[in-house]
Amino acid sequence: MRRTAAVLILATVIVSSLAAQSNPLIIYSEGEALVQDAKGGRRSAAIGTFVYVDETLITGRGGRIQLQSRDGVFDMSENTAFKLMQAQTKGKKQNAYVVALGRVSMKMRKVAAGGTPPRLGSTTAAAGVKGTELDVYEGADGSSLILVTEGEVEVESQGKTVTLAANEGVEVTPGRAPGAKYTFSEFIDYSKWNQNKLEEMMKDPVGSLKLVEAELNGYMKKIETMDVEYKEKIEWFKNEFSKLDEIEKTQGKEARYKRYHEISPIGNEASYLAIDIRFQTIMALSLRRFVLGRMYFFIKLKYINNYSDKTYIAFMTEYRSILQTFTTVTQSHVVDQDI
Question: Are 162 and 38 in a shared domain?
Answer without folding.
Answer: yes
